[in-house]
Design brief:
It is a single chain. With about 325 residues, the chain is an all-alpha fold. It contains 13 helices and no strands. It has one domain (about 10-310). About 75% of the residues lie in helices and about 0% in strands. It is globular.
């Protein structure tokens, strides 16, 4: 490929990203207008949807825990009281659809390879798909068996603070060095190790992204391969959780909040997740995970202040 051709392709790709961003912003703006025109007494305001969408999109794939951030943000916004509690909890899961769409768009070629592998037309795609399923299985089983226990005992600000602090300290003390193996060099054992690590992320505040990236580095994957596998595994994990929760409580979200405002949150999450993923991939090409360790300690300390001062409640 000549330099001229390469530059032309890069320019075309840059224009495509610009058009996609502008198109996404136009759609978000349209949904803002639609949401403003909708019933303002729904219990989920436009600002709430935008804030929660941004929090979800920015934190979902970064190793900082979107669940922890959303839990604290809900309390700061005063959401989830009374009859709207279940609907609010389901909404913050539903906006994961935006984050799912972002990875589908950014990694479409890889996802299409997995689809072809599913129907036996791509050997590499089939092998990778099997490894994703192996890594997905442990957390799926634990989540199914212990869902009520986890929600009753761990979904609160103090467990999140503990997880943020422990994870932050771990990143500062143990700095896993990237390996050299690529995504297609993964073994079944590697996938199982990553899957077992993902079980730890059932504790809110731990971060699914953090434990899967660290586990992938620990088994010898390169940083690029570790991050991409974390995204692909997250695609399946988030999709399963979203479908499961919406199947149980999706009707309550529509009853309490309508359609326009939740859709706005989904779109904001999608745009912000796409930008966050692009930034993370670029950042980790040349830098370690240390900055996220400091961030986790900082947000844990800030949350302690909010709890001690009574700004947010410590209960479930």
């Amino acid at each position: 490929m000549t330099d001229t051709t390469s530059r032309a392709l890069e320019a075309t790709e840059a224009r495509r990203r610009q058009f996609a961003l502008v198109g996404g912003l136009v759609v978000v703006a349209a949904c803002v207008a639609l949401a403003l025109a909708a019933d303002g007494g729904s219990g989920l305001g436009v600002v709430d949807a935008i804030v929660l969408g941004l929090v979800e999109g920015i934190t979902e794939y970064l190793p900082v825990s979107s669940t922890g951030h959303l839990l604290v943000t809900q309390r700061l916004l005063g959401m989830g009281d009374g009859a709207a509690a279940t609907a609010a909890d389901t909404f913050v899961i539903a906006i994961q659809v935006g984050a799912i769409a972002a990875v589908l768009g950014l990694y479409w070629n890889r996802v299409w390879s997995l689809v072809l592998g599913l129907v036996g037309r791509d050997a590499d795609g089939r092998a990778l798909l099997v490894r994703i399923l192996v890594a997905f299985s442990p957390a799926a089983l634990v989540g199914f068996l212990l869902e009520d226990t986890i929600k009753d005992r761990l979904f609160g600000p103090w467990p999140v603070v503990v997880a943020w602090a422990v994870g932050g300290a771990a990143l500062l003390v143990w700095r896993p060095a990237p390996g050299t193996r690529g995504l297609l060099d993964m073994t079944m054992r590697d996938a199982l190790v990553i899957g077992l690590a993902q079980m730890v992320a059932m504790w809110p505040g731990t971060s699914r992204s953090l434990v899967t990236i660290v586990a992938a580095l620990a088994v010898g994957l390169s940083m690029a391969a570790a991050v991409e596998f974390s995204f692909l595994l997250g695609l399946l994990t988030l999709s399963a959780a979203t479908v499961y929760d919406l199947g149980q409580n999706g009707g309550e979200v529509l009853d309490q909040f309508g359609l326009a405002t939740p859709l706005l949150g989904v779109l904001v999450a999608g745009v912000s997740a796409g930008l966050a993923v692009k930034w993370l991939v670029s950042y980790l090409r040349t830098r370690p995970l240390t900055i996220f360790g400091w961030y986790r300690l900082g947000v844990a300390a800030a949350t302690v202040v909010l709890l001690v001062t009574g700004t947010i409640e410590s209960g479930r």
